[in-house]
Write a structure and sequence with these properties.
The chain is α/β, with parallel strands linked by helices. It has a domain of about 100 residues: 5'-nuclease (Rossmann fold). Helices cover about 55% and strands about 10% of the residues. The protein is built from seven helices and five strands; from the N terminus they run βααβααβααβαβ. The chain has a five-stranded parallel sheet. The chain is globular, with a radius of gyration of 16 Å. The model has no long low-confidence stretch (mean pLDDT about 95).
Length: about 140
């Protein structure tokens, strides 16, 4: 399975041709996201809604949130399970991952537990995770 990181999911949502081209080469049930990625994207949309400066921005933010929710409802979402939690506990203790964000460690943990390939552009952080398979579909 291939799990899209938040940046790749956003590019897919926007219809980026490179992402779409790569997805077309894979079976539909071979692509998903982590529950963490889902939460990150929705959090960003909700924050945009809550920061709306006027009525026009509020309506735009609400429409974007609704489109995002509809888009995400079609995605396979891989949850945090016991194995992911165990990987997370292990990754938190690794010195080379100290500068890696909390959410990125969670995403890596879910990818490791599901033996998935993480599709990301963030090779600097995810490349330090032992055993994590990653692909960059942009460069």
């Amino acid at each position: 399975m291939h799990l899209l990181d938040s940046d790749k999911l956003t590019l897919l949502f926007e219809g980026h041709p490179k992402i779409i081209e790569r997805l077309e080469q894979l079976p539909h049930d071979d692509v998903g996201i982590t529950v963490v990625t889902r939460a990150e994207v929705l959090r960003g949309r909700i924050e945009y809604l809550l920061r709306a400066a006027d009525g026009a921005h509020l309506q735009r933010a609400q429409e974007l949130l609704a489109r995002t929710e509809a888009f995400l409802s079609k995605m396979i979402v891989v949850p945090v399970d016991d194995q992911a939690a165990a990987h997370f506990d292990r990754l938190r203790l690794l010195k080379p991952l100290r500068n890696m964000g909390h959410a990125d460690k969670l995403i890596a943990s879910v990818a490791l537990a599901s033996k998935a390939i993480l599709v990301t552009r963030n090779l600097r952080h995810f490349g330090k995770v032992p055993g994590l398979r990653i692909e960059n579909w942009m460069d």
